[in-house]
Amino acid sequence: MPDKGFDLNDFSMLMIGLGTLIGLVAIVYVIRKALTERGGEVGGWTLRGAGRNITAIARTTLAEGLRARIAFGFLLLILISVPSFYFTADGDGTIKGQVQMYMTYSLGFSSFVLALLTVIFSCRSLSNEIASRQIYSIIAKPVPRWQILAGKWTGVMALNVGVMIVVGVLTYGGVVLILSDFKATLHRELTTEGGITPAQADRFVTSLEDVKGMGVAGADSPIVTAMKDATGRTRDDVAEILLRLPESTRVNLRRFDELRRQVLVSRATLKVEVDEDEFQKAILAEYKRRQEAGMIPETVSTNAVLEQIRSEIWGRFCRVEPLRFKVWTLKGPAPSQGEEMITSIRYNVMTEAMMQAWRHPITGQVLEKDTILCQWAIGAADDPDRAERTEAIPVDTTKEIEFPADAINKDGTIVVEFANIDPRSVSAAFDLPEALKVLYVVGSFETNLLQACLAALIPLASLATFGVFASTFLTFPVGSMILIFLYILSNSMGFVAESLAVAEEYYDPTVAQPLSFEIRRMVVDLLQWLLSLGDLTPLSHVMDGEAIGWGALGLSFAKFVVLKGGLAMFIAVLVFRRRELAAVTV
Fold it and tell me: Which of 19, 21, 188, 238 has the most other CB atoms within 10 Å of its CB?
């Protein structure tokens, strides 16, 4: 293979690696210089009075932050912006889009502003006290320096927690107001367009609180059922009244039902993944079969044969041949029980060829273009609660199909079956694990919003740790500038991976890559680990009603706050203990 020379990707990798090396050398030099300076604190690891001292320093730090004009400006910006999003977040013009966009604006903007505030606040507090010599009043007392840093961090996080509580309450209140506005509009149009009395409209609107079950189009919709039960009218009467309403209101009713089932809930999300052990066993078995059958040419290396087999086997694990079926068994948390609980399969099916329209020669059944006829099922074949659905589903389009939650075992075990019964003899394939997920309700919207707010605090806790660390040996302008740059770079690592062509969509993970690619990917992975502040995405979870989970929250907190942040804080204490804050003059 001819040498391509030194391309742009190699140059970018070299620059990033060189920049990382220079940054690490600079940090090591500064820390080493701080550790080798004479003076500083001797001893000081005692726990005596730690709680009282840390609380006092945290209280002082919090008061200082609230008095600072820049902190007050950030807080005022959040308190003004979050309520204003209620008037500006329209989404796609429907109630579902409005709620999703409002939560995105509220939580996303607040998290960004709080990140900037955390950087400035954590870098400013200690470095300004050192520069103005206010630190003398603290170090003159028997307060170990690790308690000073712990108090600073606690004060910064107390402010973050307080503001995040306000943001969570405002976000929840905004969602409630959006729903109330929709119900008020529905009430008004039921009396003006629907031709019913205000008292009857009250019962129609109140019935929305009792909507349960899976989404169904037309007169069989659970909304129509709830209104029928609440008003004592027939299903046809309710459908006739709703047909008199403006088209936008009827669309919003359908979107309200989607909002109820897919957003205002807390759903566990289980991805269908390829079993790695079975995958490797299948590769070795196929290699052994070819070797025994003499199908491996002597001129071809073993690695090349294994890569070819790996690619073929991967396709088998993700593909369902015509008139065949595939079964997956998943395990998740125990589902919530009740009539209103729903199980959904979110899928994206791809086919090897274009699906042309087809008509059955005898029955006249028509299958539309770019659809595939299949059968979904949840539950084992002998399970009395097994649920099945047969329909033509769109190709290469993300959709959800719903089942009753009874099809899930009470311990969270789920058996999912997909059968390719399309008569056009085309294989169906899933790009696992993202293209096939099972979602089911495990909690309430309030729980999901609380978990999202807690998940948003984890990156802030990491930033606060790094800010306190930077303030032990850097001035406020330098420390805050570096941390803001690292924060922006941390949120841009996906773009960096794409620019260097090491993102998963740019290469086949089943095929061996050249050494230059592996080095490039290792540099990006190392940078991503060093700069990462958290591994949860609260915005996407709360928008899609996907539960973060207390276990995931605890694991993320342990990795980024306890381990990573703890290591940074330990180094910060070592630097701060050895730093001579005031020279003795004679």
Answer: 238
